[in-house]
Design goal:
This protein is an alpha/beta fold. The protein has two domains: 128 residues, Enolase-like, domain 1; 227 residues, TIM Barrel (Alpha-Beta Barrel), CATH 3.20.20.120. It is 39% helix and 20% strand. A hairpin with a 4-residue loop joins strand 2 and strand 3.
Length: 371
């Protein structure tokens, strides 16, 4: 049921108020990448209250606690303008983006707008009494599971082997690890250890987190070609589209890009440049649900497979209606603050059948991690 159909039957509910909170949620194990180590997830929680008695929820991962207070303040200032607006996600977001056209939105403002969009769609789906996936056209009675991969950080050989073992026990057929060690030899050693631990039961994905120059990326990625990897992620700077296109043309293993691209416009630029073989938008940067739908339509037109980056709870719904849906990233970032984390069944994430996207805060845990 679309916004116009609802409007014909009754007046739309309105947005009454928004609540913004800052959290720092520790990781079960510090997340190490080639760019540094994160011991915890700095997060913004957004609650969007409506006159219909439903509340839309969203969280936003800010990567560094240094940005947490600034993002929270920006979110409070932007959401203060929503009081009294009709609960119509596309209309509200178009109005907000129009207000910031002269300023531009790439960066922290885009993240805030993405969180608002996610909360709007959650409230809208709850108002209509449908899971977000069903609202967008998915038939959850036929299939409510999305194929996923277990996602881990950059660890030593022994820890990687333990991670692989844990993933196999949960039935995952795909496992991602981060590499980008001081030498190619160490990268190859870690990859070989992971593959040996898999014993042919899963496929391996690797992530360089933008740590290489283009020249070095060509050398390292070509060295990885013989290992049958499912993809190599962000070998060089995300915004070097020409460099990524050069890497993609030089190696056989699929190149994955997208988590740091801002909005459908940058996704489109990347696709036109041939910067990668695959695409993985991040809901916190692509523009939330609305941005995802627009960006993945561009991917579908070019037959580019789509995975997600983080935000698995909402992404699971969206993957059910995404052309060329590939793999869902399963990474337990928000689980400590959720009443009902997503369920993993034989390496697949089950899409919740609750109205909205299915997230509700565990308020006791939220209070524990308030920043």
């Amino acid at each position: 049921m679309g916004e116009r159909a609802a409007a014909r039957g009754a007046d739309l509910p309105t947005i009454r108020a928004c609540r913004v909170r800052q959290l720092v949620v520790p990781f079960a194990q510090p997340l190490r990448t080639a760019s540094g180590t994160m011991p915890a997830a700095p997060m913004i929680l957004l609650d969007l209250h409506t006159s219909a008695g439903v509340t839309g929820h969203a969280y936003l991962f800010t990567y560094t606690p240094t940005a947490l207070r600034a993002v929270a303040a920006l979110c409070e200032d932007v959401t203060a303008q929503l009081a009294g607006a009709a609960l119509a996600p596309r209309q509200v977001m178009a109005g907000l983006r129009a207000r910031f056209r002269l300023l531009g939105s790439v960066g922290l403002l885009d993240m805030v707008l993405s969180a608002i969009d996610m909360a709007l769609w959650d409230a809208w789906a709850k108002f209509l009494g449908q899971p977000l996936a069903a609202l967008l056209g998915a038939d959850l009675s036929a299939n409510d599971r999305v194929r996923a991969y277990a996602s881990y950080g950059m660890e030593d050989r022994e820890q990687i082997v333990r991670h692989v073992g844990a993933a196999l026990e949960q039935g995952f057929g795909f496992v991602k690890i981060k590499i980008g060690h001081a030498s190619l030899a160490t990268d190859l050693e870690i990859v070989e250890a992971a593959l040996a631990a898999m014993q042919g039961r899963a496929a391996l994905l690797v992530d360089y987190n933008q740590s290489l120059s283009v020249a070095e990326a060509v050398v390292r990625c070509k060295a990885l070609d013989g290992y049958g990897l499912a993809w190599i992620e962000e070998p060089t700077r995300y915004d070097d589209l020409r460099g990524h296109a050069q890497i993609a043309a030089a190696v056989d293993t699929p190149i994955q890009l997208g988590e740091n691209l801002w909005g459908p416009a940058q996704i489109g630029e990347s696709l036109r440049a041939g910067a990668s073989d695959l695409m993985m938008p991040d809901l916190g940067k692509v523009g939330g649900v609305s941005g995802w739908l627009d960006a993945t339509s561009l991917c579908g037109a070019r037959n580019v497979p789509v995975s997600n980056h983080f935000y698995q709870e909402v992404s699971a719904h969206l993957m059910t209606v995404t052309p060329g849906a590939h793999l869902l990233e399963y990474f337990r970032m928000a689980e400590p603050i959720l009443m009902e984390p997503v369920e993993v069944v034989h390496g697949h994430v089950r899409v919740p059948r609750r109205p909205g996207h299915g997230m509700a805060w565990n308020e006791e845990q939220v209070r524990r991690y308030l920043a």
